[in-house]
Amino acid sequence: MPQPIKVHSQHPPGGRCTLYALYATELASSLGLDRRVIHTDRRDAHGEGFPALLVKGVALQPSDGLILSPEDICAALES
């Protein structure tokens, strides 16, 4: 069974949490996967806390070290 696309988000979501949730919605729709938003108080950007976008259980890493771009997501999916 494929793993869902996950977003680790604060509640209420801020800018990156909102952006990553939108990315997750598009990815899940395009790939036919479920999407889950996990609300957490743990701040750990691109890791186990917020903000993070996880594909196949792995937190995607932004090439600029700050914010995931569509290019970062495409590169992660190609590998």
Could you explain how this protein is built, in words?
It is a single chain. This protein has 79 residues and is α+β, with helices and mostly antiparallel strands. 33% of the residues lie in helices and 20% in strands. It has two helices and four strands. It has helices spanning 15-31, 70-78, and strands spanning 5-9, 35-39, 52-55, 58-59. Strands 2-1-3-4 form a four-stranded mixed sheet, covered by helices on one side. The longest helix has 17 residues, at 15-31. The protein is globular. The model has no long low-confidence stretch (mean pLDDT 96).
Q: What's the short version?
A:
The protein has helices at residues 15-31, 70-78; strands at residues 5-9, 35-39, 52-55, 58-59. The protein is α+β, with helices and mostly antiparallel strands and 79 residues long. Strands 2-1-3-4 form a 4-stranded mixed sheet, covered by helices on one side.
Q: What's the layout of helices and strands?
A:
Blueprint (H helix, E strand, L loop, with lengths): L4 E5 L5 H17 L3 E5 L12 E4 L2 E2 L10 H9 L1
Parallel strand pairs: 1-2
Antiparallel strand pairs: 1-3, 3-4
The major β-sheet equals: 4 strands, mixed
Fraction of residues in helices? 25-40%
Question: What is the approximate shape?
Answer: globular
Approximately what portion of the residues adopt beta-strand conformation?
15-25%
Low-confidence stretches: none
Instruction: Look at the structure and give the mean pLDDT.
Output: 96
Structural class: alpha+beta
Alpha carbon gap, first and last residue? 20 Å
- Please state the CA-atom Rg, rounded to the nearest Å: 11 Å
